[in-house]
Fold this protein.
Amino acid sequence: MLRVLAVAGTRPEVIKLAPVLARLRREPGVRVRLCVTAQHRRLLDDMLKVFGLKPHADLDLMRPRQTPAQVLRRTLRGMGRALARPRPDLVLVQGDTTTALGAALAAFRLGIPVAHVEAGLRTGDLDCPFPEEANRILIDRGSALLFAPTPGARRNLRREGVPADRIVMTGNTVVDALRWAASRPHRFREPALRGLGSAPLAVVTLHRRESWGKPLAGIFRAILEAARLLPDLLWVYPVHPNPAVSLPARRLLRHPRILLVPPLDYLDFVHLLRRARFIVTDSGGIQEEAPSLGKPVVVAREKTERPETLGRGSLLAGVSRPALVRAILRCARRPERPRAVNPFGDGKAAERIARALLRWARERRP
Ligand code: UD1
Ligand code: UDP
């Protein structure tokens, strides 16, 4: 019996681990448990509900205005306890959050192997995104098994000296999740979305820590200016609950054609994306989802660890107001043609991850 403990703390971790958990649960030789840190509370709970996941342990860590250092310290302490009994054979983490780093470090200190879903993403700049670039380097360094979503991610790991036999190229599990969500018949749960009508839509999401303050205010001003210049377009922006984002959003984005809505559950959000003409975002997951839906993306960041679609569906615009306005206008008037094939995944990543885990378990047995 292979005993796997998966750990998640935020919205994207649940979305990207859900297909893996569903697949592993079909394996008679695997017992999989889920521990949540609840680094995020509401965003996490919304996603657990959509995917029908019930955690076996919940560290309930979210407190207002916590620093990543505080989240890390409390994750380490809580995971130490969660890993003690029953001791898993393997800890499964996803991405580059404080939760993923804390869980990986706690497992590493107890000698429990770590498998990293979405390994090998790099911008090459420790300040961008901060602190995620450092988190993923540290997680990858200590992992026994690294699931690289793309050839580029695999190359990054090889360049850093990770042995080839630890890396499995799988595609990104977000494409598995997206296909599941997009294939379901759907009626919006969020009342504000029910009366959208047929107006062309732009969808916005923003939350990156390195943009808080002046850069984020510049991004909001760019969106406001673009809204004025593009009179046919309706903007829908599900606002991240972090007050560093939600307060300036409500203060600066006052416009009759900019609709601010609460964070959406995954089904509402995917079906909103399907209706979008284009997307303005700093989200990692959305850069990966957009190509599957054929949607162009303006990336409101200085650097991206997801270069696969640059110039072929996505535009890296930076965060300065004039550059962003130019990029948005260009995207609205002459959209980048997304590639026909999504370079981030084909919807079979969870299957490849499950097979690799089973192979790893077989090879380890004495
Ligand atoms: C974290 C991840 C980031 C990921 C993002 C997903 C790290 C270092 N970064 O960033 O990679 O893209 O999550 O959203 O882990 N809040 C609520 N309710 C919620 C969620 C958040 O009120 O449901 C507020 C809280 O005040 C919380 C704050 O948002 O303290 C920020 O959350 P934090 O854990 O710092 O993570 P993010 O910066 O959002
Ligand atoms: N998402 C969602 N509801 C929203 C906004 C985003 O379900 O209101 C989903 C989105 O489809 C993607 C994920 O959340 O899969 C991205 O999360 P986020 O942008 O918070 O984090 P990142 O991907 O940047 O780490």
Notes: The chain is about 45% helix and 15% strand. The first helix runs from residue 11 to 24.
